[in-house]
Amino acid sequence: GPEDPLPADLRPHAWQFEELSTLAAHLRHAALYVGNDSGITHLAAELGVPVLAIFGPMDPRVWAPRGTVSRIAQPSISGRPASEVSYDLVASMAQELLLNHDLLCQ
Asked: How crowded is residue 39: how many other Cβ atoms within 10 Å of its Cβ?
């Protein structure tokens, strides 16, 4: 949350917004949003941004974002934490989402 300090090496790459409307305005311009099961992930999907949601023990059939361009990355064993989703899986799914979204927008 806002009271948690960001590690110094992440500060140059992080944005912090006071207002949800400001966050939404920035999200609208994103080529892709990658995030965990959170309110911001659902907001990005609702705005029509391609979303790659990383799920852990929660059931994505119930909790996944409902956007038209949303995909789910989850551990190969159901019920395991999101930290067990491999980087390679996330990278390949993100690349596929970007490519497919670019093709749809042409």
From this structure: 10
